[in-house]
Amino acid sequence: MGVKNGIVYLTEEEVKSTGITMREAIELVETAIKEYALGEALIPSKVFVDMKLISDHDADADAMPGYITSPDVCGVKWIGAGWRNRERGLPSLFSIILLNDPETFVPKAIIAGNWITALRTGAATGVAVKYLARSRRPSKVSIIGTGLQAKYQLLALKEVLELDKVEVYDIRKDVAEKFARMGEREAGVEVKVSNGVMEAMDGAEIVVIATDSRTPVVDGYNPAEGTLICSIGTYREVGYRTIKYMDKIVVDHREQAKITGTLCDWFSMGLISDKDVYAELGEIITGKKEGRSSDEEKILCALTGMISEDLITANRVYEIAKSKGIGRVLPFF
Active-site positions? Predict the structure, then answer.
């Protein structure tokens, strides 16, 4: 498909209709993380645009360009949040992914990116848990924050763990209860709604924190030996005191972790530095660094999301859509 034939445009519903599963997404995302570690992907740090700095718009966005050699595609994701969108009856996040041919730079596809973002973010946690968890059958698993992303976190955990029960907490109890019903219906997992963060985390072997909080939701908590905490939030959802209790910090992208995600504020304050980051997840996947070295280690994995994950997933969606005749073709000229 080239410019003469037009550009494929896929809506959110059309993207979902391609039928990519969480299991497939985990395989794709693991490949994307590994390719970056092997030098087969170009992933500049996100470019952050905060409209609040010069206007009354309570919105911000990231531009995420990149290239991955396999499946040989380049592109960009433009993703942003309107922080008052819930009051307007709109999703907080909107994203769109543009795919290009890396030889000619011919635009190939414009793809609605909300579902892909949610799917690959859950899949990235699945990969982290696969390589960093103490056991495939943990004694307790907790999820803090039960918004849209939590569903995909749960589906990914279900794929990589022997999981029949999780404990969750959200400041909006009705949202947590709705999530509990979804978890039992769609993932076949019993979901207990806790009354607080500490209650949900107490004794947990794996904790996933998936919030949009701009202040720490976990601070001063000393996890039990062997705990893995996966943080996927954009802001500092894990407090400095809790970070200092961890034996290892693993990130997906060293430079990006300094400007977004749960570690960025602590970097900017000088409370943590490069030497505090043990490894990138890709280094562990490729064997360049050891993962968990003992059952007692407490590990924090801070995932900021990499464009290679979006590109490899979006490209698979594009290929399936082409083969099934899904989507519309838009003229370029």
Answer: 77
